[in-house]
Amino acid sequence: MRLPADSHVHSEFSWDTGGPDSAARGTMEASCHRAARIGLPGLFFTEHLDLEDAWFSDPEDFDEHEAHLLGEDGIVTVPRFEADGYLASIQRCRAAVPALWIGTGLEVGQPHLRLEAAGRQLDLDHFDRILGSLHTLEFEGRRAEPNTLFRRLPADEVVRRYLAEIPALVAGDEPFSVVTHLDYAVRYWPEDEIGPFDPRAFEREFRAAMEAIAESGRALEMNTRRLWSWMPQWWAESGGRRVSLGSDSHSPAALAHGFPEAVAMIEAYGFRPGRHPEDLWTR
Ligand SMILES: [Zn+2]
Ligand SMILES: [Zn+2]
């Protein structure tokens, strides 16, 4: 089986791995060596770029190594993305593992609100792939991640609000080509309290979000942390023509997680690879 490039990989240059000075140091290089070992032809290092200024969180939603990012007022401040160090590290990895195709990238949180400001801080043309992610939703004048909101709103309301914001995410012409993890809110679904998540209860909302993404001409990521066969099915039926495959790995061990199964799944809904492993799959 010919695997596509892993289109969503984090390294020590993403703030939520702990940063370049933490135990995550060397993650980029280790991911490249692991990719070569498992026969992955390529990957994109899509580091987090989050410029939120009123993002609040509950302390329990942050791991111990991230606790210092949360102020006493509950507002989160993440360290600045170190573009120079990142690009230098990419060059070192390309030299160290020449058989591997290594692409640059960013995962921009709330690009519809923040990418313009990001473009003033950073030359976005340096990046081969820019992912757009919805990580926070507006709540009482500030923004919060779904995990924090599940403590404040009924669970189905969180998922509905998440999907309802997707059309705004893709309405503009900000330069991101892929929408990531459309099931992001579902990661935190309070299963222990209310039972397993049933996607059919939100089919209308998922399809409406997918139609908006398809109309914008962007691709939808199949996030392989959790594989859902309804995701490529509804995407194809909503007019979606392009997909990427992304493991969203934050450590080398999670690289290309579930890729063989994901490839079989997207092929079943008519998606086919491009000429190069780093190309999006199309139908
Ligand atoms: Zn992350
Ligand atoms: Zn993300």
From TrEMBL:
Residues 6-224 form the PHP domain. Pathway: Amino-acid biosynthesis; L-histidine biosynthesis; L-histidine from 5-phospho-alpha-D-ribose 1-diphosphate: step 8/9. Coiled coil: none annotated. It comes from Brachybacterium fresconis. One of its GO terms (molecular function) is histidinol-phosphatase activity. The keyword Hydrolase applies. Pfam families: PHP (PF02811). This is Histidinol-phosphatase. The keyword tRNA processing does not apply. Residues 1-13 have a biased composition (Basic and acidic residues).
